[in-house]
Design brief:
The structure holds two protein chains of two kinds. Chain A is an all-beta fold. Chain A has no helices and eleven strands. Chain B is an all-beta fold. Classes of the chains: A mainly beta, B mainly beta. Chains A and B meet through strand 4 and strand 5 of A and strand 5 and strand 10 of B.
Chain lengths: 113, 111
């Protein structure tokens, strides 16, 4: 069974903390994505990666960075968490190519206090 | 830039048909998608349509595409309480088929 695993379901952090969100997929997918989901705004793409050590900015990259050292793992980093980064974060992966199905993790609900 | 819009909420009675609408802006999209998100879960692909098609049917699901108006709809026949979820429309753009998602429509099915 295909799997995208996000390390935490719920996370509470303080303003200014460095936060790591981890995502691992077991399907040998080339592409990996980080989205944030906010009520009334849908999903917005933060960063994506189409190969190891490659990364591309999405629509809202400010305040975030990513790391893809291994094909199966894509990390989202909040260098200095702020309250407006409180959100649901969703990781997804897919094979390279057009119309490749995206597989999503269950999400990490991050609260920044 | 690319933009995908949906109404936020739809309420139907069990057994009725549901129609969820979506408009998009990128006319070069090759594929358009419908995803479903159940409470506490990630998104799952429900169905998709190739841009040169007008309609696609898959059991209780019917997707209609009006490319001229850039309008996509998802019809669920005989809606069940288990269909209660958030439904996202998405368009694939660019060579990497990056997905741009809509705001999501919360479908509430009343027994």
């Amino acid at each position: 069974d295909v799997k995208v695993t996000q390390s935490s379901r719920y996370l509470v952090k303080r303003t200014g903390e460095k936060v790591f969100l981890e995502c691992v997929q077991d399907m040998d997918h080339e592409n990996m994505f980080w989205y944030r989901q906010d009520p009334g705004l849908g999903l917005r793409l933060i960063y994506f990666s189409y190969d190891v050590k490659m990364k591309e900015k999405g629509d809202i990259p400010e305040g975030y960075s990513v790391s893809r050292e291994k094909k199966e793992r894509f990390s989202l980093i909040l260098e200095s968490a702020s309250t407006n980064q409180t959100s649901m974060y969703l990781c997804a992966s897919s094979f390279r190519g057009t119309n490749e199905k995206l597989f999503f993790g269950s999400g990490t609900q991050l609260s920044v206090l | 830039g690319e933009d995908v819009e949906q109404s936020l909420f739809l309420s139907v009675r069990e057994g009725d048909s549901s129609v969820i609408n979506c408009t998009y802006t990128d006319s070069s999209s090759t594929y358009l998608y419908w995803y479903k998100q159940e409470p506490g879960a990630g998104l799952q692909l429900l169905t998709y349509i190739f841009s040169n098609m007008d309609m696609k049917q898959d059991q209780r699901l019917t997707v209609l595409l009006n490319k001229k108006d850039k309008h996509l709809s998802l019809r669920i026949a005989d809606t069940q309480t288990g269909d209660s979820a958030i439904y996202f429309c998405a368009e694939g753009v660019g060579a990497t088929n990056k997905l741009i998602f809509g705001t999501g429509t919360l479908l509430a099915v009343q027994p």
